[in-house]
Design goal:
The structure is a single chain. By secondary structure, the chain is an alpha+beta fold. The chain has helices at residues 56-71, 78-85, 89-99, 108-120, 130-142, 152-158, 170-189, 216-225, 231-240, 244-249, 279-299, 318-334, 344-355, 360-367, 372-375, 383-397, 401-427; strands at residues 17-21, 24-28, 34-43, 46-53, 145-149, 162-165, 255-256, 261-264, 273-276.
C-alpha cells in the first residue's frame, strides 16, 4: 500500500499545519477548533487533501479507507460524488435568483424562493419527487400559520404566544407553486436535473374576489387621515395608476413637465412605459419640486428621487416601501375603511377611468398590464361596453324602445281604422 512518508512535527509549519506523520496533519481554525486532515496520493504525481474530522482517530480510519480504494482501483474523488448527486435546493435557489432570465425589480421571486428554501433547503434537488411537491401543496392549503406576537394579557387568556393565521390564500399558493415550477424548469434547462417533477403539478385556481376600489368620498377620508408625508404617494398613485415600487424609484429625470408625461424605467415588471401626467399629478409634482430646492439648501445636496423624507432619504428599498404600505393600511383603518394597502389606489385609478368612459385598451397601456385579461376585471364598470348585447336581444324580443314605439304606433293606427269602420257600419 502506498503511503506518504511524512515525519511528525512538534509545531506548525508555514501553512499552520502540525503533521502527525503518515499523511495526517491538524490545523487550528480561527474559531479555535482543531481539525484533522489527510493527504494521500491518488495517481502518480497527484495528491488529494481531505478534511477528516475533529479527532486523529477519524483521520486514521479515513486514510486507511482511501488508501485501500486507491490500491484496489475503486477510488472516486469525493468532489465528483457531490457533483453527481447535484446541489441542494438552497444552493440552487441562490443561483436561480442570481442568474434566471425572468428576474425583475419586484420582490416576487425573492419572497417566494425564501419560503421554498425553508421547506426544501437541505434536500438535494435531484431527490425531490412529485410526491414531495404534492405533500407540500397540501400542507400549504391546510396548515395554519403563526401570526404576530400577542400581548401578555392575550397570551395568558389564550395560552399561546402568537396569533394563529388561516392557511395561505389560493392566489398566494398559486404564486408559490409557479415559482417552484419555474425553478425546476430552469434546472432542467441548465442540466442540473433530468426532469421537472413540477411539470404537471396541480395548482389551485386564483381567487376571483371583487376588485376593491375607493369612491371619491372614501379617498378623501383616506387622504385626510394619512400623515402628511404619505399624502404625495396617495395622490400620485390615484392620479397615475403607478405601482408603489415605481413611485418609490421615480427620479426627477423621469419627470417631463414639458411633454406632460412620466417615464417609468424599463426594469419594472412589464418593461418601460410612458404615463400621462394628469393635472392632479402635475400639481403634486410641482409642490414637491418647489420644496426640493428648500430641502437642498438645508441638506446641502440635491435629492435624485422624487419622493424622499425630510432627511432626503428615498423609499426605494423594500423596507422603506413596506413602511409606506403599512402606514397606508393604518390610515385606511383610521378612515373607517378596511385594512387597505397603497395598491388599492391603482385599482381606483383604473376604475374611475373606465367608469368615466375610457376604453379598456387605453387603461391597459397606462397601467402597463402585460395582458388585456388583467384589465378585464374593470369591464363591469363600463356598462356602455356591453349594453349593445342586451339591446340586440331586446330587438329580437321586440322589447327595445324603438320596437315598442313602432308597435304602439301601429296599434293606435289599427284602433283608428276599426273605429272608422264601426262608424260606417252603424250609419248604413
Amino acid at each position: 500500500m502506498i503511503t506518504e512518508n511524512r515525519a511528525a512535527t512538534s509545531g506548525p509549519d508555514k501553512a499552520g499545519r502540525v503533521w502527525c506523520g503518515d499523511g495526517i496533519f491538524s490545523k487550528r481554525h480561527k474559531n479555535g477548533r482543531e481539525w484533522f486532515y489527510i493527504r494521500y496520493p491518488t495517481t502518480p504525481g497527484h495528491r488529494r487533501v481531505e478534511k477528516a474530522g475533529l479527532k486523529a482517530s477519524q483521520a486514521r480510519r479515513l486514510l486507511r479507507k482511501r488508501l485501500g480504494q486507491v490500491a484496489s482501483e475503486q477510488y472516486r474523488d469525493p468532489r465528483d460524488v457531490v457533483r453527481a448527486v447535484g446541489p441542494t435546493f438552497q444552493k440552487f435557489a441562490a443561483r436561480f435568483l442570481a442568474e434566471h432570465p425572468g428576474r425583475r425589480r419586484s420582490n416576487h421571486y425573492p419572497v417566494n424562493v425564501r419560503e421554498l428554501v425553508k421547506h426544501f433547503g437541505a434536500r438535494r434537488l435531484k431527490e425531490i419527487t412529485r410526491a414531495d411537491l404534492d405533500a407540500y401543496r397540501l400542507a400549504l392549503e391546510t396548515t395554519a400559520r403563526p401570526g404576530r406576537v400577542l400581548g401578555k394579557r392575550k397570551q395568558k387568556e389564550l395560552n399561546r404566544e402568537r396569533a394563529i393565521l388561516p392557511p395561505l390564500s389560493p392566489t398566494t399558493i398559486l404564486k408559490r407553486l409557479r415559482v417552484l415550477h419555474r425553478m425546476f424548469r430552469l434546472a432542467v434547462r441548465w442540466g442540473v436535473v433530468d426532469r421537472n417533477p413540477a411539470a404537471d403539478l396541480e395548482k389551485p385556481a386564483a381567487s376571483k374576489g371583487r376588485t376593491r376600489y375607493l369612491t371619491r368620498e372614501e379617498f378623501d377620508r383616506l387622504e385626510a387621515t394619512a400623515p402628511p408625508w404619505v399624502r404625495p404617494f396617495l395622490r400620485l398613485a390615484v392620479s397615475t395608476g403607478m405601482r408603489l415600487g415605481e413611485l418609490a424609484q421615480l427620479t426627477w429625470g423621469d419627470v417631463d413637465f414639458s411633454a406632460g408625461v412620466l417615464h417609468v424605467p424599463m426594469d419594472t415588471k412589464t418593461g418601460t412605459r410612458t404615463v400621462p401626467m394628469s393635472e392632479a399629478a402635475k400639481a403634486v409634482l410641482e409642490d414637491l419640486r418647489s420644496g426640493r430646492a428648500e430641502q437642498a439648501k438645508e441638506l446641502n445636496r440635491l435629492s435624485l428621487h422624487v419622493l424622499v423624507d425630510a432627511s432626503g432619504q428615498d423609499y426605494s428599498s423594500s423596507e422603506r416601501r413596506s413602511w409606506v404600505s403599512e402606514t397606508t393600511r393604518k390610515a385606511s383603518v383610521g378612515a373607517g375603511l378596511e385594512r387597505l394597502g397603497l395598491h388599492v389606489l391603482r385599482h381606483t385609478f383604473a376604475s374611475w377611468a373606465v367608469h368615466a368612459g375610457e376604453h379598456l385598451s387605453a387603461v391597459q397601456k397606462v397601467l402597463g398590464h402585460s395582458s388585456p385579461i388583467l384589465t378585464e376585471r374593470y369591464v363591469h364598470l363600463a356598462p356602455q361596453h356591453l349594453r349593445g348585447v342586451a339591446t340586440a336581444v331586446d330587438r329580437v324580443l321586440g322589447t327595445d324602445s324603438a320596437t315598442q314605439a313602432a308597435t304602439q304606433d301601429q296599434t293606435g293606427a289599427d284602433r283608428v281604422v276599426r273605429r272608422r269602420s264601426n262608424v260606417k257600419h252603424s250609419v248604413s
